[in-house]
Design goal:
alpha+beta; 24% helix; Muramoyl-pentapeptide Carboxypeptidase, domain 1; 8 strands; 3-stranded antiparallel beta sheet
């Protein structure tokens, strides 16, 4: 694959979003490889010991994907162009790129990748959000098998099996009077996500937002009045369930533990029966699944028992 000035399409969007995620300034991720994209490709190449010719070929894209993966960023440029031996058999589920919205002035992606059953449900949810006049932002879906877990990343994350999406983190808990989502604390480490939209019901909502003080996260409350729809209920209607915040978040831990943005497609799973390994094998051949960094620790975990 070679992307260069004059190229266009979804792979150029991936290239632009990948560069943007690493701090390069594209202006717009519009799928058109123009002078601004060429300039940032050359800058990326020069900073990473590559020939700065502005041509995004195998070496440049490989290095870009390597850096994105190292930072646990979902974007992979040209991820459809896998080696044939790595492609799942025909009877397995496929990976599907779905649309997402960028809220003006906030970070986020214009798409999210999910496995096909979750993608079908997500696209129905996305269409309903569009019809209501709201936003469905994205911080990613599919997570690469080499991506490491951490304080706010589970070794059994639904992202690995393609069943979860994250909305853009800066689109809630920031400025409740302007954010596209207002996050209400409903107790027991759970949130209700209210979505601002043209066709919502006018109401007053108590939004939670965060600040930092003394190196710790501080939770604040503010009442805001606008037109809202209960996004948590809307997502659940389409099979996507919210999860609890990490307890550390309420003790002053990092914003990454809030988890208000995470929704997972639980309609594809059976409590007490579905295992992490089986779900991974629905999208990957066994040889590739075994290369998952936490395969031995996670493969036998059962949904609803030791996998949530």
């Amino acid at each position: 694959m070679l992307l260069k000035k004059g190229s266009s399409g979804h792979q150029v969007v991936e290239l632009q979003e990948g560069l943007e995620a690493l701090g390069y300034e594209l202006g717009a991720c519009d799928g058109a490889f123009g002078p601004a994209t060429e300039k940032e490709v050359k800058k990326f190449q020069a900073e990473n010991g590559l020939k700065a010719d502005g041509l995004a070929g195998k070496g440049t894209i490989g290095k870009l994907n390597e850096l994105l993966n190292a930072r646990n960023i979902e974007i992979q440029v040209g991820e459809d162009s896998q080696n044939e031996e790595d492609l799942p058999p025909d009877e397995k589920l496929s990976w599907v790129k779905c649309p997402a919205d960028k809220f003006p002035g906030r970070a986020g992606y214009t798409r999210v990748t999910l496995r096909s059953d979750a993608a079908e449900a997500y696209n129905a949810l996305y269409q309903e959000v569009q019809d209501l006049g709201g936003y469905l932002t994205s911080a990613g879906g599919r997570r690469g098998l080499a991506s490491k877990a951490g304080a706010a990343r589970s070794k059994k994350s639904m992202h690995y099996v393609g069943l979860a999406f994250d909305m853009a983190l800066p689109t809630g808990m920031y400025k409740p009077e302007k954010d596209p989502y207002v996050i209400e604390d409903v107790g027991n480490r759970r949130w209700k996500v209210w979505m601002r939209c043209d066709k919502g019901e006018e109401m007053t909502v108590e939004g939670t937002y965060v600040t930092r003080s003394g190196g710790k996260t501080k939770l604040n409350k503010k009442e805001v009045t606008d037109k809202f729809v209960d996004f948590t209920a809307l997502a659940k209607k389409h099979g996507f369930h919210s999860i609890r915040a990490r307890s550390s978040f309420f003790r002053g831990g990092s914003y990454g533990g809030a988890e208000w943005w995470h929704f997972q497609y639980e309609n594809a799973l059976t409590v007490g029966k579905s295992t992490f390994g089986e779900e991974l094998l629905k999208v990957y051949p066994l040889a590739k699944a075994k290369r998952f960094v936490y395969w031995n620790q996670s493969k036998d975990c059962v949904f609803g028992k030791n996998w949530f």
